[in-house]
TrEMBL record:
<protein>
    <submittedName>
        <fullName>Uncharacterized protein</fullName>
    </submittedName>
</protein>
């Protein structure tokens, strides 16, 4: 679940103010002052269903003639929703958190992190309206792609050209990358200024960026061998630092492919699973 690797950034709220159903704010008094507001877990999950989903084996009458089946999975529909243990699906009257999404180039497009954020914003609005802000929602996600989401202008060496480039940005049609920081804390601009005589506004390229930092050596490759295995390497480092051995690490590679870092409960699960097999 998203967020397991670090403690909550904000501690549970302590009741001092609240909001009435009509939106008016008021002070809590008497026995409610200083009490912690209820923390309610809200889980998120999504499933994709295909038009041609069906059982492949079943009993039929001998008089029934075989019929041809459509090839391929067919059109799909994704259902994304939020669940609360005591309420079921997160909803308020006709206002629902559930989302239907028809993925495809000529349909609804693709469910990106932007769609997920809008989906979550709507769910939070429903939760706060339903609880009148007398509770705090703990939203839990099992969505590996969203773990990798960064700001559009975030620093990244992926696909960065070695030399200068007139139009390069980290994401297609996205903004320019934000400046970096030198070892002494000063700002390092990654693009030449607009007044540059030959490359106005161009991306400097990795070679120039490293030269400014005093790190460039002649003959350096733009990409190190095995760079595409960065996630796997991070998983190895995390597993070894958690005390796993080679046999346990092989199990990790099969079981937790979507994770770069392994929290302690996963490491404990791996050790328990290996011990059970033995």
């Amino acid at each position: 679940m998203c967020g397991f690797a670090r403690p909550l950034a904000v501690p549970p709220r302590v009741g001092k103010e609240a909001t009435r159903p009509n939106g008016d704010a008021f002070k809590l008094t008497g026995k409610y002052i200083g009490q912690r507001l209820q923390l309610i877990p809200v889980t998120h999950d999504e499933s994709t269903f295909y038009k041609n989903d069906r059982r492949k084996v079943g009993w039929i009458n001998t008089l029934v003639k075989p019929t041809p089946e459509a090839k391929g999975e067919g059109d799909s529909i994704m259902v994304s929703d939020f669940l609360v243990a005591h309420w079921g699906r997160l909803r308020l009257d006709d206002w629902e958190a559930r989302l239907f999404f028809r993925a495809g180039k000529n349909r609804d497009g693709y469910f990106t992190n932007d769609e997920l954020l809008a989906h979550v914003d709507n769910a939070i609005d429903i939760f706060e309206s339903k609880t009148h802000k007398f509770a705090t929602g703990l939203f839990l996600f099992d969505n590996a792609p969203s773990h990798q989401k960064r700001a559009a202008d975030a620093l990244s060496a992926r696909k960065m050209p070695k030399g200068p480039h007139a139009t390069w940005t980290n994401t297609a049609n996205g903004p320019k990358m934000c400046p970096g920081r030198m070892a002494d804390g000063s700002v390092q601009q990654l693009y030449w200024p607009a007044g540059h005589p030959t490359m106005p506004g161009w991306f400097k390229g990795m070679e120039q960026i490293l030269r400014e930092r005093g790190l460039y050596r002649n003959g350096m490759n733009a990409q190190c061998p095995g760079f595409k295995y960065a996630n796997r390497a991070a998983r190895f480092i995390s597993a070894y630092s958690g005390g796993l051995n080679g046999e346990e690490l092989a199990y990790v590679q099969r079981r937790y492919k979507g994770h770069r870092m392994l929290p302690q409960f996963m490491i404990d699960q791996v050790k328990a699973s290996i011990a059970h097999i033995k």
